[in-house]
Amino acid sequence: MPTDNRKFHTRVIHAGQKPENWQGATLPPIFQSASHLHPTAEGLSETFAGRTSEHIYMRLSNPTNRVLEEKITALEGGKGSIVMSSGMAAITNACMAMLRAGDEFVTGNSLFMSTYVLFANIFKKYGITVRFVESTDLAAIECAINDRTRFLYLETIGNPKMDVPNLQQAASLAHSHGIPLLVDSTLATPYLCRPFEFGADVVIHSTTKYLSGHGDAAGGVVIDGGAFNWSTDRFADFKPFVDRKGALAYLDRVWREHHINFGTTQAPLHSYLTMVGLDTLALRMERHMANALTVVRFLKSRPEVTWINYAGLETSPSHTTARRQFNDLGFGGVIAFGLKDQATCFKFINSLKMIYHLANLGDCKTLVIHPYSSQYLSFPEDTRRQLSITPDLIRLSVGIEAAEDICDDLAQALDACR
Ligand SMILES: Cc1ncc(COP(=O)(O)O)c(C=O)c1O
User: How far apart are CA 118 and CA 268, in angstroms?
Assistant: First the structure.
């Protein structure tokens, strides 16, 4: 839980700030150095033994990255974090740190595309069984857990189904079986939801999205809540990490076994850019979500729009959970909606004048994509259906421009589809 009692809007700017260490600068310098000098052989040996936290080599850690880690740890209310080169690097390391050949895990089936590929295709090659279930179906989750299950994985807001699982119930269920809950909270951000407060054990973000907010830096982060008990028979293989790092055993394993050896290093420039963006996260999220509600109201009024998935709609099956879990602050900035068919979606996208057509979300600019013919192009039809990727689906990441201008652009593109 956050130890700093100031409000989120204040903490997002001031958490982890140490201008006294940066010659008075208000942002940390970009430490563009592959390795760091050590005055004595004894000192370097102590650092390698993990008894000091000096920096050694950029692949292992970096002072600019560490400032971002401290900021994000504080915002999520975790105990420690590691920033990585992308959201996918973070997801891969977060999962791999817990998996051995023969292991299993359970995941909601409302997943970002590359996460799905990693889980369904890549992990399979290494003898790992992944059990996919409906993210909001606790009974199905429970049925899928067995003695070999190592964790439960969920997205706070599923991309692109926009469903919102009940994290408190999912965490209790996972803990009752002695397994941790890992949550990809990219679409929610710590402004909207702090999964540790609901019992989650590990939180992951693609910082490429809302945390940086300007589409100028790739990155990911794994945050450890530090509360899970790794000293059980199921996790006997964690003993050396528990002995070394106690409550931060998991993060130590992520770092020691995976991050530094897979070389998923974050470039300090990207951490710096992410910190510049992070300062305005609260303001941006307020505007993203207010605009999203206006856009949803507008889309509802248009006969060309056949359906809308957005937890802010009272008719959404996720509405009640989202309201409670997101403290009535909003429902996120991404909307999924349907048009007549793929040809209509293409006509709509090609008619947009201001909204950017590209593969990203969480940027301050409004972004649109037709997932079926792009990110999911090579997926088998039955998998697309299972993931709710249909030919009529448009995904819209609502930006922070004037809502009126966003709606005007959508209106003229929908007019062109008539
Ligand atoms: C929910 C979610 N998680 C993870 C990722 C992967 O992040 P990155 O592109 O930074 O690897 C994405 C990317 O769109 C995402 O939407």
Answer: 26
